[in-house]
Amino acid sequence: TDPVIYFITPTAFRPAQRADLTRLSYTLAHVPNLHWIVVEDTLEPSKCVSDVINRSRVKATHLFAKTRTDMKMKYADPNWRLPRGVDQRNAALAWIRTQLSDATTGAVYFGDDDNTYDLRLFDEIRKVKKAGVWPVGIVGGLFVETPKIGANGSIESFNAVWKPERSFPIDMAAFALNLTLVLQNPNAGFSYDVPRGYQESTFLEGLGISRKNMEPLAASCSQVFVWHTRTEKPTLTKEKKKMLERYPKNI
Ligand code: UDP
Ligand code: MN
């Protein structure tokens, strides 16, 4: 049988949250054997996110983990100022390690709420033996950021331009892992103590992955099945300021 895909989505309130999550939920509703782990950046689960999850009919676990106050960005901050999703992804990993400790199959993927996913991505995620990698569209200042594959079919280099010296100069959406690897390396996770752009590299190193043993997928990294789309931040100039930092009803 197909391994279950554990699709981890950190999600934080902003005006387009419900819209982005609704669109993502309709993508995931097409995918068999998927377990959606939604981790809200809140002190308690919100009705908004609960409603979206329930309406989707996707099998899901709704967790919450509020970002440390000193690490939480304000609405007007540029998105690169601080790492995003650290506490949420760690909460999902902790849930996996306690709830699925006896699992022998499964795939783990970090799927942000604002990206765009081709359904063919999920076939690639299920192929992962240890750690799979593929191109991501519109990220890192490029149309496509991707590993470059040599004649022998393994990774030769990466085309990344932004911080190419990273051990893995790739986006969070560029890889998936076998669940057993996550269970075997209980200390691998995300951290505020790493330089900007190093979340992926630090995590993958913690799992004992090297460039050499990553599996290039998506037809030897020739196909783009995920895009790092970003929803424009609405200015809402006619709205009261306080509305931008909290939950209004049903938007
Ligand atoms: N996110 C979060 N808390 C935050 C900011 C973002 O949980 O304070 C989530 C967000 O909903 C998304 C992921 O973390 O699923 C990545 O954030 P974002 O899309 O803003 O980052 P970028 O695409 O710019 O890397
Ligand atoms: Mn994003």
Description:
The chain is an alpha/beta fold. The chain is built from 7 helices and 13 strands. The strands form 4 sheets. The protein has a 7-stranded mixed beta sheet, with helices on both faces. Strand 9 and strand 10 (155-158) form a beta hairpin. Helix 1 (17-28) runs parallel beside helix 2 (47-56). The chain is globular, with a radius of gyration of 18 Å. The chain starts with a strand and ends in a 24-residue tail after the last strand. 38% of the residues are buried. The structure holds uridine-5'-diphosphate (UDP) and manganese (II) ion. Uridine-5'-diphosphate (UDP) is lined by residues 9-12, 41, 67, 72-73, 79, 84-85, 88, 112-114, 230. Manganese (II) ion binds at residues 112, 114, 230.
Helix and strand layout, with pairings?
Layout: E1 5-11, H1 17-28, E2 34-40, H2 47-56, E3 60-64, H3 86-99, E4 107-110, E5 116-117, H4 120-127, E6 131-133, E7 136-139, E8 142-145, E9 147-149, E10 155-158, E11 175-178, H5 179-184, H6 199-206, E12 215-216, H7 218-221, E13 226-227
Helix pairs in contact: 1-2
The protein binds uridine-5'-diphosphate (UDP) and manganese (II) ion (MN).
List keywords for this structure.
single chain; 251 residues; alpha/beta; seven-stranded mixed β-sheet; two-stranded antiparallel sheet; 7 helices; 20% strand; binds uridine-5'-diphosphate; binds manganese (II) ion
